[in-house]
Design goal:
Strand content: 5-15%
Oligomer: single chain
Mean pLDDT: 94
InterPro entries: GH (IPR017853), Glyco_hydro_2_cat (IPR006103)
GO molecular function: hydrolase activity, hydrolyzing O-glycosyl compounds
Low-confidence stretches: 1-14
Distance between the termini: 33 Å
Radius of gyration: 19 Å
Shape: globular
CATH superfamily: Glycosidases
Order of helices and strands: HHEHHEHHEHHEHEHEHEHEH
Protein name: Glycoside hydrolase family 2 catalytic domain-containing protein
Largest sheet: 8 strands, parallel
CATH topology: TIM Barrel
Keywords: Signal
Strand order of the largest sheet: 5-4-3-2-1-8-7-6
Number of strands: 8
Pfam family, one: Glyco_hydro_2_C
Length: 353
Amino acid sequence: MKVFLTVLLAATMANVAFAQEQSREIWSKKKAAKWYKQHAWQRGSNFIPSYAINQLEMWQAETFDTAVINRELGYAAGIGMNSMRVFLHHAAWEQDPAGFKQRIGTYLDISDRNGISTTFVLFDDCWNNTYATGKQPAPKTGIHNSGWLQDPGVRREVSPALTDTLERYVKDVLTSFGNDKRILLWDLYNEPGNSNYGDKSMDLLKQVFVWARQVPVTQPVSAGVWNKSLTDLNVFQLNNSDVITYHNYADEKEHQQTIDSLRKFGRPLICTEYMARTRGSLFQNIMPLLKKEKVAAYNWGLVSGKTNTIYAWDTPMKDGGEPAVWFHDIFRQDGKPYSTEEVTVIKSLTGAQ
């Protein structure tokens, strides 16, 4: 999941027609730059509490655990992190819209008390393509993200009526929280085209941008580029995002090339995924680069838990033992770091005591 983009901004008649469907146009580069300068350097993790195997287990009423969330966000605050990227799921909203939004509010209360802003993710093309509310499955031994859920997944192909539900979900959540200063950014769609969807994801990608811009949110909206081969998706994402978001799990040389390429678009840069130790993407080499380049930075994973993201994407461990080198994550559940050396580096960059 790495990106080095050479696509150039292309204004087309299709883009003009698309803009006319929206009530709010893309932010100007000047407005985006002004917004970015109003915030300290944002640095944090993609956050899923250790008790949750997926987004539903995090957000459903039966399993939403404020004590764990508060404790683990406290670990992040203790090393100077000030932002988290957090995935939502429309099925949790559909099951209980009022309760779901109440839990979002509770989460924001907790994160704000810990000095942490939030980037929320609405849709996702990664991992399991079906979902069911209620009790979630146990993790599969030694397998990375064995229970993570696409949203909406394959059901969008077999149930066209689902689109109406998704529109109501997006507009309800954005209307409820579109002026909440605790929210940094709306990440509308994680890795569109993943899981072999390719350009089949374009329709929903376009729809979610239309829906988001029909709500008067004050935060920027974006969808991150992540795969150089998805040219049409990349061009659309880069042409329609208020700020540029991207993923890169490569070493510092390739990551620098990605930053240099994306600078051509003249908008603030936010790296919404990095840090895969066995691929050379480390806190020691990437986080200093992102700080130097003034790129907001979200590594994957905070506390090791039911997502099993200490295991690599393509290297399962059938015995479920601890890998010699963790792929993602920073802390054990008791708050002890995987690597004290890494935590020292992070704290030196964030200014944490």
